Amino acid sequence: MTEKNKNQNNKNADIPKYKVGYTQGVFDMFHIGHLALINHAAEHCEKLIVGVNSDALVQEYKKKTPVINEFNRAEIIRNLKAVDDCIIVETLDKVEVLKQYKFDAIFIGDDWKGNARWSQTEKDLAEYGVDVVYLPHTPDVSSTRLREEEPNRVTGE
Fold first, then answer.
1. What is the pTM assigned to this prediction?
2. What is the pLDDT of residues 83-119, one digit of tens each?
3. Could you tell me the strand order of the sheet in which 105-109 lies?
4. φ and ψ at residue 134, rounded to 5 degrees
5. Quick check: helix, strand or coil at residue 50?
6. CA-to-CA distance for 45 and 86, rounded, in angstroms?
7. Among positive and negative, which fits the CA dihedral 61, 63, 68, 71?
8. pLDDT, tens digit, for every residue of 17-67?
9. CA angle, 146 as apex, 144 and 149 as ends, to 5°?
10. Residue 21: which region, alpha, beta or left (left: phi > 0; alpha: psi -120 to 50)?
């Protein structure tokens, strides 16, 4: 095990084990950062539910149409061994999702820590005894960046 992995494992040792965990995202153009988030989340809970943002929801808040449709994105996520349940989600309101799916913790990349929406989500979920757990973000990887990088761009040719 490398020194970096030892440090990472020590950092993750501080995260308690939860009964049911939840994470949510677009998961468009599935990449190693998505896999890392899901696998790390699964390490900290007995059961992991993953919400895939619907095409309509992504269009509403990102003003983008996903490259891969919601049904195919959900099927990719559903087939990961770390995932116990996969749902297509129509809302960014985590309390609304909590009321339907009952989880103890929500996992998100630490690049969102301090973001106003996530700070509010922490407060909202605390009222229900749900923890927001920030996991290490995989640097230099995002679907948005993959979409925009000229050498990686997919064209119809």
1. 0.82
2. 999 999 999 999 999 999 999 999 999 999 999 999 9
3. 85-89, 45-53, 18-25, 105-109, 131-135
4. -95, 120
5. strand
6. 15
7. positive
8. 999 999 999 999 898 999 999 999 999 999 999 999 999 999 999 999 999
9. 110
10. beta
**Which amino acid is present at 138?**
T
- Alpha-carbon distance of 113 to 119, in angstroms, equals 7
Tokens 């009222």 correspond to what residue? Answer: 127
What is the rounded distance in angstroms from the CA atom of residue 141 to the CA atom of residue 18? Answer: 27
Q: Identity (one letter) of the amino acid at 62?
A: K
CB atoms near residue 29 (< 10 Å) = 17
Contact 95, 120 (CB under 8 A): no
Residue 82 and residue 45 in contact, taking contact as beta carbons nearer than 8 Å: no
- Say what angle helices 116-126 and 94-101 make with each other, to 10 degrees: 40
